[in-house]
Amino acid sequence: MDKHFLSPLFSPESIVVLAGNMDDPEGQTPQARALHNALVAQRYTGTLTFLDINFSGTLADLAGAQADLAIIALPPQEVASALEIAGRIKCRAALVISSGIDAEHAAELHRIAKRDGIHLLGPNCLGFQRPALNLNASVAGALCTKGPLALVSQSGALTSSILDWAQGNGVGFSTVVSLGPNTAVDLAQVLDFLASDPQTHSIVIYMEGISHARRFMSALRAAANAKPVVVLKAGRKSAGNRAALTHSGTIVGSDDVFDAALRRAGAVRVRSFVALFSAAKCLASRYRPVGRRLAIVTNGGGPGVLAADWVSEINLQLACLTPEQAEQLAPTLPPLASLCDLIDVSEDAGPEHFKAAVELAGKAPQVDGVLAIYSPKIGTDSAGIASALAEANKKISKPLLTCLMGDATVAESRAILNAAAIPTFRTPEAAVGAFGNIASFYQNQQLLQQTPPPLSNLAKPDVEGARILIESVLAERRKVLTEMESKALLAAFHIPVTRTILARSVNEAIMIATQLGFPVALKIDSPDITHKSDVQGVALNVLNAVGVRDTYTEMIQTVTRLMPQARINGVTIQNMSTQKRGREIYVGLVTDDPFGPVIAFGAGGTMIEMMNDRAMALPPLNQFLARSLIQRARVADILGEWRGAPPVHMDALEQVLLRVSEMVCELPQLREMDINPIIVDDSGAVAVDARIVVENAPPSARNYNHLAILPYPSQHEQVWPLRGGGEYTVRPIHPEDAHMLQDFVRKLSPESRYFRFVSSMQELPATMLSRFTLIDYDREMALVAVYRERRVGADGSTTEMARIVGVSRYITNPDRTSCEFSLVVSDDFKGKGLGSRLMLSIMDFAREKGLEEIEGLVLANNPTMLKLMKSLGFAVKPFSEDADFKLVSQTL
Fold it and tell me: Residue 24 above 80 pLDDT?
């Protein structure tokens, strides 16, 4: 059970090829001929058998052709029969290399594969390559060079182009996978395999769309947590989006939302084919940067200025030396060197000058990375400078990138830097962009680590009241809430709103305004009018009763004339905001296909469309994610001290975003929401206007199935009594548990560690520790038993320390109906009921997720665990693949 379910596909020990009669090339498809040549061009490490489905043989002959993988390259009308044969000879995976198979025919192939338990890659794909196995199961070109990169592409043409480009640029791959339209094994499943593939150190993806947002995000988060993932997505603009949808047959969605999804998954997105591999090369290096501050060392002012311009263009920061650092460096540089902003070592600089500047900048605390730009000069030793940079790189722990201007004169220097694994570029912009990718990777990894619950730790909202309000609106067959209903919904989640009362006549308007106190604002109330200002439906600073009378009458007449079909409920009256120096902010919700609800933030007011300032984030949010969302919007620049106004109350603004996140999580009926403007100043934030659109949601949506990222399941936290006295907490694991989990594993006895991991390791490797603590709660669950124990210090003081004393875990199998579990309890807590409680709790969670069976492997010489399993009603059977294990299972 330790093998990945796609191992028979990508790591087969035996292959059967169904591609027609090999002795009759004319009778084969073009794909079959190309496949045959690709397979025999090198010696595959496993067993390779060619089988003609039209041959005349016995069933015994057929049974003898048993294999892990069947590769099918036949005319479309013969593919289904070949797939039937693959199932009959117990193949666990199949690859269909073909073209021209439509969606209906592909669906039939999927049904055959699912019935026979076959993982099907294809149809309409170019296949895959695995250089370590000398396996070229593709028609994408010659077998690529072996390397640490994995490539997954949804375009066959681009796959071939990338492989051709890689051959000439020394780029090697661990795996290359071409995913055509209508494939059964999709992008998410391939990513899941690559995340655990030891030969793959980083992953590059070309994609056009996805078929299932939750599965894609789950797999991408798991992969990006294990190794760098770089994505090039087509269809950034509307025309490209339509073309991508037509080409890939998958859901494309909004480009802004896709950016937000990748950011939250910890992956890096690039915008061009060239940047795809430079980003992967940089991210696969030893560097793990901690910021966006780049120092530039150059021997030419022009290239340095170009680099500095690009630093500002892509929202990096130019790192400068302090006066003390400049004073320290200056004596080691030529007289004409300049150290103001750029570290310009001057045209006279030699190897020793570059080395000194890079070393000092690389050790400066205000610098996160260094870019060394070299412009060829007459009489300068370019190879010596490259060697000096390679030496300097050994002494700094931050990213060093280089840009060698020119071509033939610096060829030797480039070879030296490549040999030292220092990324080198031909233009300053490309080098700065590569550092931007490294910085984005670090920032996105921080976002990946966040696992917020659906509700924050703020005061509990009135969720039931909000649901009743929405259901009453839907019962009236309405979708658009009135302004008063929208504000009532916001108030249920403790979002501050201006007091608003609806007036249905002039007299009501005058009485309400007089009671509220002048000045007041009047706004038309209609479910059919989205932008009130466009139809003169907003009047501000009305100072007296006469003004209210005249404004009310004129507003009703004007709106009726401009929009005669609009239903008008009346006019709302509200006090004018007293926040004189407030900034106008917009917070909204959009629903994307396929990613679901997405929270938007930016500048608000009547100029919102013109300013086009909108940052996006996938819910749920916590304070870190809310702050990150605010910082990405352009309006963040005016939220501090601005034109004499004090900084805004940032906590209040963050709390509004947290409240909106709660609304999105708990109210799956929400489809659109515009809270505009929210006026925020140093005293707080208040929502002045709001528009909300709702729709009916399926009953299962209350399990957060409407979200692309499942929230931290805080509702599953329970406190249980400990046999013998005391109590412990059982709760889902989260990334902050990494230190406690490592301590738990270290304190296990060698026997307990072996029973759990079938290994003599004394602690979890960093990658495994990360994998075990940052999990996707949609496809797996890990419950920890946490015990708080009191410790007395040397001075007699008492402290309470939390420790993990047991862990149960399951991961969903590919059939999505069953799961595999594991269990381990601290040696000093055995016999106290923890094992039973952890197993019952993990089974309850699996049952709630709709799983039907739970199973696991237990060492045959572990009688304590086998006894526990029997007491819980598990069936215990021999494990056919290994006699040292027993297979235990139970129907949920």
Answer: no
Same CATH topology for 1-125 and 452-498+577-710: the answer is no
Name the band, by pLDDT with cuts 50, 70 and 90, for residue 55.
Answer: low
527 forms beta bridges with none
Q: Is the pLDDT of residue 239 over 60?
A: no
pTM of the complete model: 0.85
Q: For residue 197, give both structure tokens.
A: 């593939």
Does the structure show a pLDDT above 80 at 58? Answer: no
CA distance 538 to 531: 10
Average pLDDT of span 730-735: 94
Helix (H), strand (E) at residue 362: helix 351-363
Is the domain spanning 1-125 CATH 3.40.190.10? The answer is no
Residue with structure tokens 């929270």? 599
> In Å, what is the CA distance from 180 to each residue of 9, 247, 432, 511?
16, 9, 34, 67
When pLDDT is cut at 50, 70 and 90, the band that residue 553 belongs to is: very high
Domain topology for 293-448: Rossmann fold (3.40.50)
What's the pLDDT at 826?
95
Complete DSSP assignment for 397-434: -S-EEEEE-SSGGGHHHHHHHHHTT--EESSHHHHHHH
Q: For domain 452-498+577-710, which architecture applies?
A: 2-Layer Sandwich (3.30)
Burial label for 725, CB within 10 Å (0-12, 13-18, 19+), is exposed
The kind and range of the H/E element at 472 are helix 463-475
Cα 496 to Cα 653: distance, rounded to the nearest angstrom: 11
CB 649 within 8 A of CB 668: no
Q: pLDDT of 867-883, one tens digit each?
A: 999 999 999 999 888 88
Nearest to 806 by CA among 723, 713, 892: 723
User: By the 8 A CB rule, do 11 and 130 touch?
Assistant: yes
Using CA atoms, how far apart are residues 562 and 467, in angstroms rounded to an integer? Answer: 35
* Euclidean distance between CA atoms 223 and 836, whole angstroms: 32
Fold of 499-576: Dna Ligase; domain 1 (3.30.1490)
DSSP 703: G
| pLDDT tens digits for range 789-839 | 877 777 777 788 899 999 999 999 887 889 999 999 999 999 899 999 999
Which has the higher per-residue pLDDT, 243 or 545? 545
Q: Tell me the sheet residues that pair with 344.
A: 298, 338
Q: Which residue has the tokens 């950011």?
A: 263
Report the chain's mean pLDDT, rounded to a whole number: 88
Cα separation, 425 vs 414, whole angstroms:
9
Q: Identify the H or E element spanning 246.
A: helix 238-248
- pLDDT at residue 575 is higher than 80: yes
Q: CA torsion sign, 579 to 585 to 591 to 594?
A: negative
Identity at 253, one-letter amino acid code:
G
E strand residue ranges, 19-118: 47-50, 69-72, 93-97
Cβ–Cβ under 8 Å, residues 76 and 98: yes
